[in-house]
């Protein structure tokens, strides 16, 4: 451990690793949406087929959230996340070779399903790491950094991967993304450590994290561990505050999955853009989403530092952003490509601005079960990962148009606003013994 008197800032190095890991995560998720317009035509997949292929990831991702959370609480984020990254990247790579199998569609579904299983601990691991490494008044910013990875993946890598298709073929989208993930997974295992085991951190930084509400001891031998019963899990699922947060996350994830699945196809088919133009056009809303995510997280932390309550500081960006995301419906009333891109950019900026669900989870989950709580939260949220691509696929199949699909996505913002305003209530940290209707509060952490 570093013994210098000046407070170290190792937490920002770890934040860089967290952001890069989430970037790799979402590049792998985005590969199919980038390849889909060309891949589906070459392999003869219908809109409904692609809906099922897009949803395969969501089925596995949702079903494995709770088991993934249990693994995180038992073995820690460093090991579980690193190994998971290598495994999901292997399945990403294999998607580029589905044409070699007797049924390309079946193997695509299987590989996407297995990739979803392997990625299930990713976001809960980041949430858990943010509690270990950051005090409360920096956690909104930390969360915004790793939660903006989807926007960077879309904004920077969609044009790059689209260009790869024009140079080579859709197969190399999967090959290149898979290799990137495998290499970074090895780097993660080599360099990432928990706070108490990192050689460069000093006592001053540990005290700063701890006194600010962070839990650097999380998962260490010094932390007193408590057995978790299924009744306590049920209490977390049934708590009114958490139910409202789950609904809000479902709505946000629905918007995310539209952009990560059908958006390039929407631009290609509905707006008649070429693959190169699709890559460039899809990047603009993603950049707006990145900016929105950073601004929303910084605003939330600023309000907290100014003495506003945790509830007001977290809810204000969420409610305002979700309300503004409804503007996506305007795209149905114009054929102007620049206006469509502007509307999509505004909606994605708003989605990023409101994307503080994981920060809320870090603020409110029982400190004894942050991995499990993250798994439960992501399970409910990622039902959208199944429903969104399927619903949109069937809408297109039935109507031949994206109009009702855009209305469906726009309505998610309004539902999320209603949930946070009328269901969530006051944000408080739960204990494992919290009753379903009235959250018990950990007094020490609540005061902090």
TrEMBL record:
Q: How does it sit in the membrane?
A: Multi-pass membrane protein
To which protein family does this belong?
Belongs to the major facilitator superfamily. Phthalate permease family.
Q: Which UniProt keywords apply?
A: Cell membrane, Membrane, Transmembrane, Transmembrane helix
Pfam families documented for this protein: MFS_1
Identify the CDD domains for this entry.
Answer: MFS_ExuT_GudP_like
Coiled coil residues, start to end: none
Q: What is its main location?
A: membrane
Q: Which domain of life is it from?
A: Bacteria
Question: Which Gene3D superfamilies would you find in this protein's record?
Answer: MFS general substrate transporter like domains (1.20.1250.20)
Q: Which InterPro entries match?
A: MFS (IPR011701), MFS_dom (IPR020846), MFS_Na/Anion_cotransporter (IPR050382), MFS_trans_sf (IPR036259), Sugar_P_transporter (IPR000849)
Localization recorded for this chain is: Cell membrane
Q: Where in this chain does the record put each Major facilitator superfamily (MFS) profile domain?
A: 14-428
The taxonomy runs: Bacteria, Pseudomonadati, Pseudomonadota, Gammaproteobacteria, Enterobacterales
Q: What is this protein called?
A: MFS transporter
Q: Where are the transmembrane segments?
A: 12-32, 52-72, 79-98, 171-192, 243-263, 275-304, 316-333, 339-361, 373-396, 402-423
């Amino acid at each position: 451990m570093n013994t210098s008197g000046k407070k170290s800032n190792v937490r920002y190095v770890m934040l860089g690793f967290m952001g890069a890991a989430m970037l790799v995560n979402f590049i792998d998720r985005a590969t199919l949406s980038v390849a889909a317009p060309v891949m589906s035509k070459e392999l003869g997949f219908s809109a409904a087929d692609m809906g099922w292929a897009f949803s395969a990831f969501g089925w596995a991702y949702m079903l494995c959230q709770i088991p993934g959370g249990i693994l995180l609480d038992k073995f820690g984020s460093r090991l579980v996340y690193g190994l998971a990254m290598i495994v999901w990247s292997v399945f990403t790579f294999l998607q580029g070779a589905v044409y070699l199998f007797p049924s390309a569609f079946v193997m695509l579904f299987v590989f996407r399903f297995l990739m979803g299983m392997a990625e299930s601990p990713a976001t809960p691991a980041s949430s858990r790491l943010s509690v270990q490494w950051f005090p409360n008044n920096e956690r909104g910013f930390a969360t915004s950094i790793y939660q903006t990875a989807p926007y960077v993946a879309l904004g920077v890598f969609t044009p790059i991967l689209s260009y790869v298709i024009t140079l080579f073929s859709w197969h190399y989208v999967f090959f290149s993304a898979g290799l990137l993930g495998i290499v970074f997974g090895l780097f993660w295992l080599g360099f990432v450590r928990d706070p108490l085991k990192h050689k460069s951190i000093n006592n001053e930084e540990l005290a700063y994290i701890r006194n600010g509400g962070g839990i650097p001891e999380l998962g260490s031998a010094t932390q007193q561990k408590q057995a978790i019963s299924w009744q306590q899990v049920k209490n977390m699922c049934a708590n009114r505050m958490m139910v409202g947060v789950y609904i809000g996350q479902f709505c946000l994830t629905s918007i995310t999955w539209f952009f990560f699945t059908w958006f390039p196809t929407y631009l290609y088919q509905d707006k008649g853009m070429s693959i190169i133009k699709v890559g460039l056009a899809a990047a603009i809303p993603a950049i707006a989403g990145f900016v929105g995510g950073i601004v929303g997280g910084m605003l939330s932390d600023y309000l907290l530092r100014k003495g506003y309550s945790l509830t007001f500081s977290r809810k204000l960006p969420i409610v305002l952003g979700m309300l503004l995301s409804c503007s996506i419906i305007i795209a149905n009333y114009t054929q102007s490509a620049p206006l469509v891109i502007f509307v999509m950019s505004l909606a994605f900026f708003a989605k990023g601005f409101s994307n503080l669900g994981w920060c809320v989870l870090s603020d409110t989950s029982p400190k004894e079960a942050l991995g499990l709580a993250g798994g439960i939260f992501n399970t409910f949220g990622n039902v959208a990962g199944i429903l969104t691509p399927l619903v949109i696929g069937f809408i297109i199949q039935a109507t031949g148009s994206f109009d009702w699909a855009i209305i469906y996505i726009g309505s998610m913002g309004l539902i999320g606003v209603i949930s946070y305003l009328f269901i969530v209530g006051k944000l408080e940290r739960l204990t494992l013994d919290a009753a379903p209707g009235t959250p018990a509060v950990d007094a020490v952490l609540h005061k902090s």
